[in-house]
Design a protein that fits this description.
The protein has about 280 residues and is mostly helical. About 65% of the residues lie in helices and about 0% in strands.
């Protein structure tokens, strides 16, 4: 049944059917609006459509929706043997996407620049452990998950996903910081003194995040780290360089290792709390 007194010319319908991009926007919009109310023109267009064109169009739509083009990180993960499902979940981690990786590189470069300016490793050793902590926050803060609490219903939500993403985030961040450390003024064993503190802070954030919002946990640990390092240096009487202070000595490394072990134990014990880590509390 036709609900209009005029009809689109057959050649116009044919062009709209086979190559709508060839029409100007106004004409294409007019034809589309007309087809909504005109059964005769819809019938002519349907008759002019090749079954192969319909199949091709639906296949293209299905490929776009069901099989989106993998991101670069996802393709890299597949190449090294990570399954497609897990690879997509890891690639969706905010800190591992373009802007997140760029931020990590900028933070690492900033720590190196400060050390080069001061001609000492101290600034890098103090700031480097905060970079993985920031990456963890970017990955697990509630604002990082647009799905919010709806994500709790997904099959991989919880401890398994958190741990996998944390390993990926911390591993890549450590790689960036390791490369940045090559530019330090004195590349010796002391240049690696940031590793254990960084691990302790990252794991501590996850462990404390089972009680607090992860960004609050990160803020608490950041303050504790900066206060602890400055206090140790202050008590030493300012007569030693930051890199030579107790915070980065054998004692400091053992302390960081103990904190990392304790944080791992807490996170394992309270792993059920990870089910709400990415949801607003």
């Amino acid at each position: 049944m036709t609900n209009t007194d005029w009809h689109a010319p057959p050649d116009l319908l044919a062009r709209f059917t086979h190559d709508p991009g060839a029409l100007d926007d106004m004409t294409a919009a007019s034809v589309e609006a007309h087809l909504v109310v005109c059964a005769d023109c819809r019938g002519q267009m349907t008759a002019a459509v090749s079954p192969d064109l319909v199949t091709t169009s639906w296949d293209a739509i299905a490929d776009r929706i069901d099989q989106p083009r993998p991101a670069l990180l996802e393709r890299v993960l597949r190449r090294i043997g990570v399954g497609s499902g897990l690879g997509r979940l890891l690639a969706a981690t905010p800190a591992l996407q373009g802007a997140g990786l760029l931020a990590i590189c900028v933070l690492a470069a900033g720590a190196v620049v400060l050390s080069l300016t001061a001609d000492a490793e101290g600034p890098f050793l103090v700031l480097a452990p905060l970079v993985p902590l920031a990456a963890v926050v970017a990955s697990f803060a509630p604002a990082a998950d647009p799905g919010g609490e709806a994500g709790v219903a997904t099959p991989m939500h919880g401890a398994g996903l958190v741990i996998r993403r944390a390993i990926a985030v911390v591993g890549i961040t450590f790689g960036v910081l390791g490369a940045a450390a090559l530019a330090l003024p004195d590349l010796g064993p002391a240049a690696a003194a940031w590793l254990l503190p960084a691990l302790a802070l990252a794991l501590g954030t996850l462990a404390l995040g089972t009680w607090l919002r992860v960004e609050v946990a990160a803020g608490v640990l950041t303050g504790a780290w900066l206060l602890g390092v400055s206090s140790v240096w202050w008590l030493a009487g300012h007569d030693v360089a930051l890199a030579d202070s107790a915070a980065f000595s054998v004692t400091g490394q053992i302390t960081a290792l103990a904190v990392a072990a304790a944080a791992t134990t807490i996170a394992a014990t309270r792993r059920d709390q990870f089910a709400t880590l990415e949801a607003s509390r």
